[in-house]
Structures are given as structure tokens and as C-alpha cells.
Amino acid sequence: MQNMNEQKTGSLIRQLRLKEGWTQKELGSKIGISDKAISKWERGLSFPDITLLPRLADVFHVTVGEIISGQQLSEPALDPEVFDSVVADTLVYSKRDTFSKGKRIFCLIFIPLLLTAMLICAIINLAVNHQLSWAYYPIGALLIVLSLTLALLLPHAHRLEILMGTLEFSLMIYLAMIEKLSGTQGWLISLALPISLVSVVCLYLLLKLLMILKRKWQILSYSMLILALGPLLSINQILRLNGLRHTLISDWILLGCLLGGALLFYFIDLATRR
Fold this sequence. Notes:
CATH architecture of the largest domain: Orthogonal Bundle
Radius of gyration: 28 Å
Largest sheet: none
CATH topology of the largest domain: 434 Repressor (Amino-terminal Domain)
Order of helices and strands: HHHHHHHHHHHH
């Protein structure tokens, strides 16, 4: 049995189309798809893109569940086993569809451009200096962009966590390369590693807030709290421990402003919810 029961769905789409008296071309114009695609659906050769299911259901005045199952509710009710199978198939198809056409096109265009840019840097460096020297820096930066691009394209429920982990790993490799090429030592573990970790964790928390929270005052409150405890307090402490910076009165003023702002926006959020 094919995924999503293409045969039954295709048969239902054909039945509903004929009931409305539409040609395949007319139906296609209503949902923004070609008549060839509709012909494939009706013959059970393919299944409608998951993003088109709500539009199909709307034009035929049925539910998405009916389109997926290939049965109308006016017919004998779906038994629990069939319904569970439909839901499971929907989840499978949804995961399969994550890697959409847009992402494939993005891969086909952007990734070759990155690789081409790396090659050009290497060729110019070799042509001018007869060895690889400065090209390591842009190539390393482009490799970070490439690794983040590939992580972003992964069809995974924890894509953000994978993206942040890839960012931190790539940054550390890049900074280790800089330490090696520059001939300086000692700052990678004591300075670069903790600062990059704090920065990536703060970035992750801010992005997570934007994904989870809906109320703007709540987002502002938590964002200010993260900025106060992360980049300002933690990074200042790291720099101070490495003897690169002394705590200034302005640091405490800024910290107080951020914490005060976080508290203010928290109470505004409470007031607006009442």
C-alpha cells in the first residue's frame, strides 16, 4: 500500500471534481497547480503537496481528513484503525515533505556558490603568493556558513539545537585555526571558548523565546534578563578574570537598567493580561 493511500485520495479528488463539473485545468487554476499534477493525483501516481490540502478541502467543501483518507464523512464512518492509520500516514508525509522544493533549490544554488567562493580564494592566494596563507581565513568563514546551511536544512524536530551546536563547534574549529596560524597561544581555552559558549547559549535562548512566547512584553522582559546575565555580566566576568578589563561603574549602571527594564516589562505583561 502506497503512502497516504494515493489511489483512494486520487479517486475522491476525481469524484469531487466531476461533481462540481470542473475540468482538471479549472480545478488547477483554483488551487494554483497544473492540470498535469491533478491528473497524476487522480491516477494515484502522486499525492498532493501537504500545503495544498487545506486549499483542496476548501474548494470541495470537505475536510482535510477526508482528502487524506479518500473517504467522505457522509459515507460509512471511518473505523478507529483506519483513522489511526490516516493520522500516522499524515505525520510520515509531513516529515517527508519538510525538505521542500524551496530548500532543494536553495541547496542547488547557494551551496555551489559557497564552494566556488572557497575555490576562488584558494586559486587567487596560490597565484599571488604561491602558497595558501590568507585564504585560510575566508575559506574557514565560508565553511562555517556552509555547515550552518546544512544544519538548517536538516528535517529534524530539534533543528535549532543542532544549528546552535553546529555554530559553536564550527566557531571553535575556526578560532583554533586562527590561534595556530597567528602563532599566539593560551587565549582559545581561557577566553574564546567561554565567550563563544555564553554568546551561543544567549542566542539560542533568545531564538527559543521568539518561538515559544507570544506576548511582546513577555518577550522583551525575558530578552533583557538574558542580555543582562549573558553578554553583559558573564562576558565581563570572563574578561576580568583574564586581566583584560576592569569592572566599571557604567557596567553596573547598564546592568541595573537591563534588570530594571526586565522587571518593568514583566509587570506591564501582567497588567495587560488582566
